[in-house]
């Protein structure tokens, strides 16, 4: 298996990661104190993002793309 390590401070090498960080910032603004953030709140945010269509996935949600991959793996 090949691995790729992005160069430090080269955000354009981490497109999906940077996009996801931006989506998370809609729920948790930069500078917000995370001290009182509960696991239930984190789970809700994760559920929201996993069920949000993404252009990169052909407008499927990450949850749909994952289920599709699971189906392929089960058939192999």
UniProtKB/TrEMBL annotation:
Domain Integrase catalytic: 1-70
InterPro entries according to UniProt: Integrase_cat-core, RNaseH-like_sf, RNaseH_sf, Transposase-Integrase, Transposase_IS30-like, Transposase_IS30_CS
Domain of life per record: Bacteria
SUPFAM superfamilies: Ribonuclease H-like
Function: Required for the transposition of the insertion element.
Stored NCBIfam families: transpos_IS30
Family: Belongs to the transposase IS30 family.
Name of this chain's protein: IS30 family transposase
Species of origin: Piscinibacter gummiphilus
């Amino acid at each position: 298996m090949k691995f790729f390590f992005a160069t430090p401070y080269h955000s354009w090498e981490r497109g999906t990661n940077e996009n996801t960080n931006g989506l998370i910032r809609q729920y948790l603004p930069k500078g917000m104190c995370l001290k009182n953030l509960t696991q239930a709140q984190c789970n809700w945010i994760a559920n929201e993002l996993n069920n949000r269509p993404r252009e990169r996935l052909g407008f499927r949600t990450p949850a749909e793309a994952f289920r599709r991959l699971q189906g392929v793996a089960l058939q192999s």
